[in-house]
UniProtKB/TrEMBL annotation:
Pfam family membership, one: DUF1648
Protein origin, superkingdom: Bacteria
Source taxonomy: Bacteria, Bacillati, Bacillota, Bacilli, Bacillales
Keywords: Membrane, Transmembrane, Transmembrane helix
UniProt name for this protein: DUF1648 domain-containing protein
InterPro entries, alphabetized: DUF1648 (IPR012867)
Length: 173
C-alpha cells in the first residue's frame, strides 16, 4: 500500500488545532528568522568575502566559504520549514511506532503534528542562529556561540522527539 493511500483514519485539522504556545513559537521563530535575513542584508557590504562556513564539534571554525553560503543557509532553512509545514498538515501519513486505530488516532495525530510543528520552528531558529553566528565571527565582533550551538541542535530536535515517543507509548497503553 502506498503512503498516500493510507487506510489510517483521517481527522480534520480543525480537531487538531494548535495550542497558544505553538502559535507563539511559530510567530517568534518567524520573527527571529526574518530578523536574521534583515541583519544579513544590512551587513552584506560590510561582510568579508570569506565567512565561517563550517564548525567543528567544539565550535571552532574549520572551513571558510563565500558569504553567499549564508544565503544558501537561509534558503535551506526556509525549504525545511516549508516542507515540514506541509508535512504537519497530513498526520495520517506520518510514521508511528504504534498502530493507529480509530480510538487513538486523534491523540496520536495531535502528538505527531505538535512534534513536527515544534521541530520546524526550532530548525528555523537554529538556521537563523547559525547565520548570525557566522556573521558575528566574520565581522570580528566576537567568537560566536561556539560550543553552545551543537547542544542546542541536539536538545532542540532530540528532546521533543523523545518526549513525543513517550507520549505515543502512553496513548498506546
Amino acid at each position: 500500500m502506498s503512503i498516500f493511500h493510507s487506510n489510517r483514519p483521517k481527522i480534520t485539522l480543525e480537531k487538531l488545532k494548535k495550542s497558544g504556545f505553538e502559535r507563539f513559537l511559530s510567530v517568534i521563530s518567524i520573527l527571529i528568522f526574518i530578523g536574521s535575513c534583515i541583519f544579513l542584508v544590512v551587513m552584506w557590504d560590510t561582510l568579508p568575502d570569506q565567512v565561517p562556513a563550517h564548525f567543528g564539534i567544539t565550535g571552532e571554525v574549520n572551513r571558510f566559504g563565500s558569504k553567499w553560503e549564508l544565503v544558501v543557509l537561509l534558503i535551506v532553512g526556509v525549504a525545511l520549514y516549508l516542507l515540514m509545514h506541509v508535512l504537519e498538515k497530513y498526520p495520517h501519513l506520518h510514521n508511528y511506532p504504534i498502530e493507529i486505530t480509530e480510538s487513538n488516532a486523534e491523540a496520536a495525530y495531535r502528538i505527531s503534528r505538535s512534534l513536527i510543528g515544534f521541530v520546524k520552528n526550532v530548525i528555523l531558529i537554529l538556521f537563523a542562529m547559525a547565520t548570525i553566528n557566522s556573521m558575528i565571527i566574520a565581522l570580528e565582533w566576537g567568537e560566536g556561540i561556539g560550543l553552545v550551538l551543537l547542544p542546542l541542535i541536539f536538545l532542540g530536535t532530540g528532546l521533543p522527539v523523545i518526549r513525543a515517543l513517550v507520549k505515543l507509548m502512553k496513548v498506546n497503553s
